[in-house]
Amino acid sequence: MPVRVLEQFVRGKQTDQSLCEDRLVVTSHFVAVIDGVTSKSAYTWQGESSGVHAGKLIEQVLEKAGPAISFDALLDEINRRFQALYATLGLAGHMKAHPIDRLQACLCVYSLERNELWFVGDCQALASGVLYAHPKKIDLLCAELRSVILEAELRHGATLEAIGADDPGRRFILPLIKAAKCFGNVDQGHPYDYALIDGSEIPAGHRHVYRLDALPQEIILASDGYPELFATLAQSEAHLQTVNAKDPLCFRENKGTKGIAPQNDSFDDRAYIRFVAQ
């Protein structure tokens, strides 16, 4: 196989690993990280969360995709799979009107045939010392707002333990996160637009393609469960654990839209794969 996997790791933030919404896919033609979006809806899909089920459908498409497929054609096929499921369940109209209920995922793919990195959403990659990442502006804003709320609560006498048990910052920003679903796959120069795979048309400006240098080279793909990527899994894990220990509520060192829930392993699911393309 022209890809030599050096190390790979997937771990869900919760004890039950079947709930993990991150996935790694390695085929003869592609290496991919799929990050299922944490659902803000009551909808489930054959007993699975929208992120888990979206990841499974995307994996099926990648496993069948031929080496010469373009990124546009791959995304079109994934969207057809999503739309077909909506139609089969009689939910096509509902999903068009209610984006919060859709299957949702982000994706990063390395194409061996084209020697390209492909992105939709906020997965990340490291190749030849260059970081490729596309953070969501709305998440950065909500993380800052949550941080302000928690800092104010502490100034007024709240304890970190009380905040961890009942996060007022998360309560404050959750309506904003839900309302911001209307900005998904909007390509109008809007300051809060963002990209995801949910069955809707993904504008060209949200389909990121990067041609890499000549082979062989070492490449890392990861979900945004890692606040920073390093050259090895051990280094990336060590940094994550250090940050989590310093800031388990994720409002100072690693500002986020939620902290580490009680009994959870981290603030988010995570996936990491390091390989040599040759």
Rg for CA atoms? 19 Å
Helix content: 25-40%
SS summary, helix count? 7
Please list the strands of the largest sheet in the order they lie side by side: 1-10-9-6-7
- Regarding quaternary structure, how should these chains be classified? single chain
Along the chain, the helix and strand elements come as EEEHHHEEEEHHHEEHE
Give the strand tally: 10
What structural class should be given to the helix and strand makeup? alpha+beta
Largest sheet: 5 strands, antiparallel
The amount of beta strand, in percent, is 15-25%
Q: Which stretches of 5+ consecutive residues score pLDDT under 50?
A: none
Distance between the termini: 9 Å
Give the overall shape.
globular
Mean pLDDT: 94
Task: Please tag this protein with its features.
278 residues; alpha+beta; five-stranded antiparallel beta sheet; 7 helices; 32% helix
Characterization of this structure:
It contains seven helices and ten strands. The mean pLDDT is 94. 38% of the residues are buried. With 278 residues, it is α+β, with helices and mostly antiparallel strands. The radius of gyration is 19 Å and the shape is globular. It has a five-stranded antiparallel sheet, with no helix packed on it. It has a five-stranded antiparallel sheet with strand order 2-3-4-5-8, covered by helices on one side.
